[in-house]
Amino acid sequence: MKKPIVFTSEREMPPMAVSLADMGHNRTGSWRYLRPVYREKIAPCKNACPVGNDIPRILSLVSEGRYEDAWRLFRETSPLPGVCGRVCYHPCESFCNRKNFDEALSIASLERFVADACFDLEDRIPERPKRSEKIAIVGSGPAGLTCAYFLAKDGYAVTVFEAASQPGGMLRLGIPPYRLPREVLDREIELIARWGVEFRTNTKIGQDISIEKLWEQHDAVFIATGAHRGRALNIPGEELAIQGLEFLKAVNVGKTIALGKQVLIIGGGNTAMDCARTALRLGAQPVVVYRRTRDEMPAIAEEIEEAEHEGVQFEFLAAPVALRRLNGKLEVQCIRMQLGEPDASGRRRPVPIPGSDFIMRADAVLKAVGEEPELSFLSEHVETSEGIVIERAHGILERAGIFIGGDAQTGPSTVAQAMRSGKETAQAIKSFLRGERKPKPKKLEEALRVNFSYFVHQPRVPMPHMPVAERITNFSETKRAISSERARAEAQRCFSCGVCNSCDNCWVFCPDAAITRIDGTYEVNYDFCKGCGVCAEECPRNVISLVEEEL
Amino acid sequence: MTPTLTGTKKVVTGNHAVSYGAMLARVQVISAYPITPQTQIVELLSEMCANGTLRAKFIKVESEHSAMAALIGAASAGARAFTATSAHGLALMHEMLHWAAGARLPIVMADVNRAMGPPWSVWTDQNDSLSQRDVGWMQVYCESNQEVLDTVIQAYKVAEKVLMPAMLVLDAFVLSHTAEQIEIPNQTLVDQYLPPYQPVYKLDVNDPRSFGALAPPDVYMELRYKMHQAMEEALTEWAKADEEYYELFGRRYGLIEPYRADDADLILVTSGTVTSTAREVIDELRAEGRRVGLLKIRVLRPFPAQLVREALADAQKVAVIDRNISFGMGGIFAQEIKSALYNTHDRPPIFGFVAGLGGRDITPKVIQEIIEYTESHDEPEDLIWVGVKR
Ligand SMILES: Cc1cc2nc3c(=O)[nH]c(=O)nc-3n(C[C@H](O)[C@H](O)[C@H](O)COP(=O)(O)OP(=O)(O)OC[C@H]3O[C@@H](n4cnc5c(N)ncnc54)[C@H](O)[C@@H]3O)c2cc1C
Ligand code: SF4
Ligand code: SF4
Q1: Are B55 and B202 members of one domain?
Q2: Minimal Cα distance from A6: which residue of B?
Q3: What is the domain extent for residue B71?
Q4: CB-based contacts of A195, cutoff 8 Å, min separation 6
Q5: Which of A137, A139, B36, B88 is packed most tightly, with the most Cβ within 10 A?
Q6: Atom 8 of ligand 1: nearest residue by CA position
Q7: How high is the mean pLDDT of chain A?
Q8: Residues enclosing ligand 3, CB less than 6 A?
Q9: Contact, A167 vs A145, CB < 8 A?
Q10: A208/A330 Cα distance (integer angstroms)
């Protein structure tokens, strides 16, 4: 600092309180106890997406009409955008910040839109070193497919063993085509195969090849066999009921099934909904029998609504206690239930009302009360508890090099969760083969503070549906595609949470001129930032946040 | 001297006269919040900004406090800054008015005199501007739309010279919404009269300085002394600015204006539009041979005490009309006149009249009554309420 200026008379003084010297030496940053930090954050939608799709960036591309770029960005994180855009339960939307403003972004329908718009595109497959390690994947559901995709991209030789005649797992065997057209599934599997993945269908491990042999012939094995064994009702006459999942599988592989007119479906989950809607399309009048009320149904709300729209009937607070055959018909003896105390899942426990038995008649009864993994082919190698494999450290089973994931590991879950598991296993296998430890997942900071003042209300683009009358006679897709204009308009609703779009607000608003612009990004000059927080407040998308200064 | 470049004649309201004045002064930043009866001023200015007639930044704000704060920022950065307000809007600016003056920023503002609520009123009286008498702003009370326009331009001339902000005041509706023919001066001449503002100190990221920092007792008083000096200097500067204006445009107003007061026994003191009415009354009474005259106070701050003393030196009686009231004391102009004359010998008795509050008309008859009351009473009275229904 220079020598202080001392005024001896008013004449020497400036007219106002202004420093005569350059104040550059006065580092006002020392006054600060809060520090603005310019750091991009993860959007909550992206954080909630099990496969980690970079939603804000993808939507930004869609809003500009750059669909191919959007599709390629999807394919960096997921080999199945066309599938997910249709059947994923979109946890991304549940966490979308926009739902606190008007309505969440319609992310899944945009994902579908991009996949449809780019249906004919193919991945650009670069020249890459072939690796010698061979990897076997058992099961070609979303877990197996995703694991195969990411390993093959890295040059590993991957073979997928599948018991069924075609790959796809539940996507082909369980989920009906009116929700997932098979050409979409076929196309995305075809693109995975292009990376050099070999599919060996009609090959059941434990029967056609032993797990031992598989393990000997490969450097790593991924067990992704799903959860396909239907649970039992444990009531007399049970054998007269058909397993719901088996029914779906049969219809889905094109077998003709005659159910008759009156069909009862026992259960309230997604399998039950698909059974009912499939039966409806085969000409039946399905009734779903569920032991609690609509509020407790484990099926996704959207699926229940669709079933209701299509005319599926519901019999709530009823549970079957016995099945009999009588005069060519089935007689289901049911008991009335009432809701008692909440159970471990937080839902109220159904309690039978004594003496309330009643009879329901049916041509066929489908039981859909849950599935569990069938892992007997592994029994010597892994411990199981109620059919669910207990996870070992890092997902590596006792025998080094055997990994398990997807529904086979967790029990029935979702497509996207199975994909996450497949993706993480691909990473774990790579680490294992390189003799490294599996990398720890990074804790990411979410962008949750959006400044709504910068946005205008605009309703979510509605998803067009085929009219019910047209839907229930066939298996064609019920949801229709949105137009390109609507897709762009919808994508423009995205706040781009946590992603800086160089709006200049921080730079404009900083009262201390402590923000510097550098090629579309910004830097805080902490020598002069007084920590007032205006930049953080005025950053519309939470890229700047305030942290307490360490003392 | 005859102007070489003529202006244009136009019939405009007092409010639009303000807008044209600001336009000719080439203001660079305008920030305002609308309030009746001021709104048209900034409406026209915002149109001018939008259509490019005026190259200025128009900052929309959420309150008058912010409007003035924005102008303080703009003026600190060296811009010629303008706003207009009225009544409650002006009251809300109060804190920032002190700041603008203390920071020595030559901001110019138009205040349309409107009575304060409650009860709500939109009509004219001077309590709003007079409540801000001591904040360090120059105050100029205008009588006609032409004077309004000319005063905007003169105000920048003086304000930028002495570095004190200036407020010109016009009566609600009587001027603000009443159209009369005025001359819009020629821009080239105005540019010649009012060159761009060149601040000595300004906010500049390349020359960082601290502004308005803490001043300990050993310097604070000096800075206040300098503000007062600037106001004193402004008395001369107003006179100079007025003369220079006259040379270019052929009009001048003075800081005060005596009217037929030379040999008057009784001098009536007025401000604002009451003056015009009073001129008529004086003319009529003069025609009857009565020795009455008029003194218009145009510049209230800085107060031209010496000029007032000289103008009233030979009067036998003085009657002051106040369209305002300082509750518990009386009319504010009357107090000013009295305190200016107190230290002189042979001062005349001063009668203080309060009239026309909340926009009640001050008609020729009212003025005549005031004159007659003053003539017929010998003992001066501090506060005489005119026309109160009792
Ligand atoms: C009817 C139904 C509808 C559903 N709808 C949805 C939905 O809309 N959205 C959603 O997110 N989730 C849905 N799910 C859940 C979802 O399908 C599963 O969570 C997901 O498919 C699990 O993936 P996975 O790869 O772990 O196993 P799966 O998809 O089950 O794939 C396992 C594969 O392994 C094969 N396999 C099994 N054993 C062997 C063996 N020994 N040898 C070789 N191959 C074997 C099976 O044939 C199968 O192809 C639904 C489930 C069902 C049953
Ligand atoms: S995969 Fe599911 S969670 Fe992820 S973006 Fe698509 S719809 Fe959302
Ligand atoms: S607004 Fe966009 S970025 Fe933010 S959570 Fe929703 S979809 Fe994601």
Answers
A1: yes
A2: B219
A3: 2-249
A4: A123, A125, A149, A152, A153
A5: A137
A6: A87
A7: 91
A8: A 43-45, 55-56, 59, 96-98, 105, 107, 494-497
A9: yes
A10: 38
pLDDT, residue A388, reads 36
In a domain, A544, yes or no: no
Domain count, chain B: 2
Same domain, residue pair B232 and B264:
no
- The number of C-alpha atoms within 13 Å of B209 and in the hemisphere containing its C-beta is 17
Domain assignment present for residue A87? The answer is yes
Residue B285 lies in a domain: yes
What CA–CA distance (Å, rounded) separates A119 from A116? 5
Are the CB atoms for A171 and A180 separated by under 8 Å?
A: yes
Inside any domain, residue B366: yes
**What residue owns the CA closest to ligand 3's atom 5?**
A96
CA distance B187 to B146: 16
Contacts of B211 in chain A (CB under 8 A): 16-19
On the question of pLDDT at B1 being above 70, the answer is: no
Query: Where is the domain boundary, B249, B270, B288?
Result: B249
ipTM above 0.90, yes or no: no
Which chain B residues are within 8 Å of A7, Cβ to Cβ?
219, 222
Give the rounded distance of the alpha carbon of B169 from its chain centre.
4
Q: Distance between CA atoms of B134 and B137, rounded to whole angstroms?
A: 7
Report the pLDDT value the prediction gives residue B4, as an integer from 0 to 100.
62
Contact residues, chain A, for B225 at CB < 8 Å: 10
- In chain B, the percentage of residues whose pLDDT exceeds 70 is 99
- Name the minimum distance, in Å, from the CA of A447 to any CA of chain B: 29
* pLDDT confidence bin for A512, thresholds 50/70/90: confident
pLDDT digit string (tens) for B79-131? 999 999 999 999 999 999 999 999 999 999 999 999 999 999 999 999 999 99
Quick one: A203 and A329 in the same domain?
no
Query: Does B352 fall in a domain?
Result: yes
The reply to whether residue B212 touches residue A16, judged by beta carbons under 8 angstroms, is yes
How does DSSP classify residue B330? Answer: B
Please report the pLDDT score of residue A375 as a whole number. Answer: 81
How close is the Cα of A63 to the center of ligand 2, in Å? 18
Residue A397 has pLDDT above 80, yes or no: no
Residues B262, B290: one domain?
yes
**Distance from the alpha carbon of residue A95 to the mean position of ligand 3, in angstroms:** 8
In this predicted structure, what is the pLDDT of residue A393?
A: 35
Considering the domain architecture, whether residues A348 and A425 belong to the same structural domain is answered as: no
Residue B390 lies in a domain: no
Look at residue A244 and tell me if it is in a domain. Answer: yes
Report the predicted TM-score, pTM, of the whole model to 2 decimal places.
0.74
Domain that holds residue A247: 231-370
The pLDDT, as a whole number, for residue A271 is: 95
Residue A496: closest CA among A453, A545, A447: A447
Number of domains making up chain A:
3
